[in-house]
Amino acid sequence: MTEPLRVLLADDQTLVRTGFRMILGADGMDVVAEAANGAEAVEAVRRTRPDVVLMDIRMPEMDGLEATRRILTGAPGEPRVIILTTFDLDRYVYAALSAGASGFLLKDVTPEHLTVAVRTVRTGDALLAPAITRRLVQRFARRGGESVTLHRDLASLTPRELEVFGLLARGLSNAELATRLHLAETTVKTHVARILAKLGLRDRVQAVIAAYETGLVSAGGHEAAPQSTELT
C-alpha cells in the first residue's frame, strides 16, 4: 500500500492552516506538522521530513523566504516547497522561486486546485501558472537585490533544446509544446528533462527564471538569437 503524501503547513493564521489541513486530509494526505513562523517550519521539516511544505511568505520571527532558503539546501530528500501568497504583488515570491521553491498558490485557492498542486510538485514537476509566473519574472529578473541569479551556460543545449527552452520559458505546457513543435508529448518530456539536467535546474519554474536571467527570453517574451547561447 502506498504511503500517504506527507505535508507540512507553515502559516501564521490558524484558520488558514485548519482549512488546508481539512482539505488535504479529505484527499488522503497526512499533515505531519504545522508551523506559525519560519523558524518553526525549519525545525519541523528537520523533525518530520515531509514531502511537501506549504509556506506562507509573511510570518513573524522568520519569514517564508528565509525559511525556504534554509530548507532547500540541496541535501538529498529535501521536500518540495509551495509558496502561499495573496499575490498582488508579493515581491518576495520571485526570490523564493529562485531559492528553489517549486511554485506558488494564492491563499484563496480552491480545494481541488490545492490538492492537485501538492501532488503535482511531489512528482517532481513545478507548479507553474504561466501568466502569473511570467509577470513575476518580467518584473524582477535582472534587478539584483533580493533575487538569486542563476548563472548558466546555454552552449550545452542543442538547437532543438534551445527552441524548447525558449517556449517553455514563455509558459507553454508539454502538450502545448508538442503541438507547437509537431512532436510527441513523450519526446517533449525527454527534451525538458535533458534541459533541466544539463543546466542543473530543479524544475520548470527555475527554467523560466534562468531563461529570463540569461537573456534567452526578453521581458517582452521573445527568444534571443541562438548565437547568444554562451552566457555566464
Q: How much of the polypeptide forms β-strand, as a percent range?
A: 5-15%
- The oligomeric status of these chains comes to single chain
Main sheet summary: 5 strands, parallel
Question: How would the global form be characterised?
Answer: globular
Helical residues, percent: 40-55%
Order of SSEs: EHEHEHEHEHHHHHH
In terms of structural class, how would the helical and strand content be classed?
alpha/beta
Strand order of the main beta sheet, please?
2-1-3-4-5
What distance lies between the first and last C-alpha atoms, to the nearest angstrom? 47 Å
Report the total helices. Answer: 10
Rg of Cα set = 18 Å
Q: How many β-strand runs?
A: 5
Average per-residue pLDDT, rounded, comes to 80
Low-pLDDT residue intervals, each spanning 5 or more residues: 144-150, 224-232
Features:
232 residues; disordered C terminus; 10 helices; alpha/beta
State the gist of this model.
By secondary structure, the chain is of the alpha/beta class. It is built from 10 helices and 5 strands; from the N terminus they run βαβαβαβαβαααααα.
Topology record:
Elements: E1 6-10, H1 14-26, E2 30-35, H2 38-48, E3 52-56, H3 64-71, E4 80-85, H4 92-98, E5 103-106, H5 111-122, H6 130-140, H7 159-169, H8 174-181, H9 185-199, H10 204-213
Helix pairs in contact: 2-3, 3-4, 6-10, 7-9, 7-10, 8-9
